[in-house]
Write a structure and sequence with these properties.
Strand content of chain B: under 5%
Number of helices of chain A: 11
Distance between the termini of chain B: 56 Å
Helix content of chain B: 55-70%
Structural class of chain A: mainly alpha
Radius of gyration of chain B: 19 Å
Structural class of chain B: mainly alpha
Order of helices and strands of chain B: HHHHHHHHHH
Shape of chain A: globular
Mean pLDDT of chain B: 81
Strand content of chain A: under 5%
Oligomer: heterodimer
Radius of gyration of chain A: 22 Å
Number of strands of chain A: 0
Number of helices of chain B: 10
Number of domains of chain B: 2
Largest interface: A-B, 57 and 47 residues
Number of strands of chain B: 0
Low-confidence stretches of chain A: 1-12, 121-129
Mean pLDDT of chain A: 77
Distance between the termini of chain A: 41 Å
Order of helices and strands of chain A: HHHHHHHHHHH
Largest sheet of chain A: none
Chain lengths: 245, 175
């Protein structure tokens, strides 16, 4: 019988956020840069996506703003290290820091353009519309965060399937769930899957899909756990994330 | 700043929600009877089999601790129901449960691992008078209450959890 821990010992999953943040202080510069790159690859797509859709931003400034945030906040101020010691969730900490940075930059750019101090006052209705836009963007940012979390879980699962030669698990997950849900594809019928994956029966295909769902759920749990103080908070965080959707 | 086609970041939130629900349905994949069976099996599993997997040094430590003072702690159940369990063995069991919670490769359902995690903490509190977790009292009580709510949970585990709950509540009253 294979025990849970023997299974666990086969775990070749990605380093955790905590271990990467710790490596930011490594004496070896190559290790430091690699850790920073790994961290940025995880979370930067969300920030970039947000800027691409921000209505108040000049398209030419978006790239500068991402680089500015990385240079000023992540590298100079070390907010990722501070996030480890901060109370509260990593998601809230990072996203708030980023939104504050964007607001400050927009305010600074606006102030430079205005001639009268404080700038012309907006009509009441227009000011309300700006606030609504901002709140809608806040919601979109959190939604993008959740999507990125899901993406990391999917990537982890795909890597595990490849490493353990479980192409059948990945294939059925992709054709029955991922492609239909995220790309609007038609789910591949069980009959076709049985032929393609050389399975014995449709019920074997159904069982394979259950295995795939379990694997995805575990990867999701690992990714979410990495953004909270300890794994016991992962379930609550997942509930919170769902509320944003 | 380019994203691959069908980037998940552009997917409709309702679709992402469906995917999350499908993951959450993992709990539905295990029936109450399944969870009861897995937990009972885990309760009777030899300590050396699971804790030994933590490494060779650990395996030897488990062996030494399990047979010390003629305790003859063969299984998780033996350890958690014992009147004076070795604290170090409880710590190892807690670490094992935690790793099962963390690992995507764990074959134990998360709910079972979570109950095992809080049962070891409860046993350390009530039987050894020691904390083996850095969680706050409120968080431990929350976890114990959650575990007691699992209708598949065996009475022998409930007894351990309740005694831990009592110890923490009494401490709270005293302080």
């Amino acid at each position: 019988m294979t025990t849970a821990l023997q299974e666990d010992n086969r775990d070749h999953s990605q380093p955790t956020r905590w271990s990467l943040v710790a490596r930011l202080h490594d004496a070896d510069e190559t290790a430091r840069l690699a850790a920073l790159e790994s961290l940025l690859q995880r979370y930067l797509p969300v920030l970039e996506w947000y800027l691409m859709r921000h209505p108040g931003l000049d398209p030419h400034r978006r790239e500068d703003m991402v680089q500015g945030f990385v240079a000023a906040k992540i590298i100079e101020q070390g907010i990722l290290e501070r996030a480890n010691q901060a109370r509260g969730r990593f998601r809230t900490f990072l996203l708030n820091a980023f939104q504050n940075y964007v607001r400050d930059e927009l305010r600074r750019a606006g102030a430079a353009r205005r001639t009268p101090p404080g700038g012309p006052l907006l009509p009441f209705e227009e000011a309300g519309a700006v606030a609504t836009d901002e709140s809608r963007m806040d919601q979109k940012l959190h939604q993008a965060w959740i999507s990125q979390i899901v993406q990391l879980a999917i990537t982890g699962m795909e890597a595990e399937c490849a490493a353990s030669h479980r192409d059948d698990v990945w294939s059925i997950f992709r054709s029955r769930l991922l492609a239909p849900l995220l790309e609007g594809a038609t789910p591949e019928p069980y009959g076709a899957l049985v032929k393609r994956l050389k399975l014995d029966s449709p019920s074997q295909a159904a069982n394979l899909l259950i295995t795939a769902k379990r694997m995805f759920a575990r990867h999701l749990n690992v990714v979410v756990s990495d953004t909270v103080e300890d794994s016991t908070q992962a379930e609550a965080e997942l509930r919170e994330l769902k509320k944003c959707l | 700043m380019s994203h691959p086609p069908h980037s998940i970041l552009d997917a409709a939130p309702t679709r992402v929600r469906e995917l999350l629900d499908c993951a959450a349905a993992e709990t539905l994949l295990w029936s109450t009877d399944d969870l009861r069976d897995v937990f009972d099996h885990q309760w009777a599993t030899p300590l050396a089999m699971d804790l030994g997997g933590l490494g060779q040094a650990m395996a030897e430590q488990v062996e030494t601790l399990a047979v010390s003072k003629q305790l003859l702690l063969r299984s998780f159940g033996d350890l958690l129901e014992h009147e004076r369990p070795p604290l170090a063995l409880l710590q190892l069991s807690k670490e094992f449960a935690k790793r099962c919670l963390h690992s995507p490769h764990s074959t134990i359902p998360h709910d079972v691992a979570r109950v095992l995690y809080f049962t070891t903490i409860a046993a350390a509190l009530s039987r050894c008078g020691q904390r083996i977790s850095s969680l706050s009292d409120a968080r431990i009580l929350e976890g114990i209450a959650w575990s007691l709510d699992c209708d598949w949970l065996a009475e022998k585990a409930r007894t351990v959890l309740r005694s831990g709950q009592q110890t923490l509540t009494d401490r709270g009253r005293q302080s």
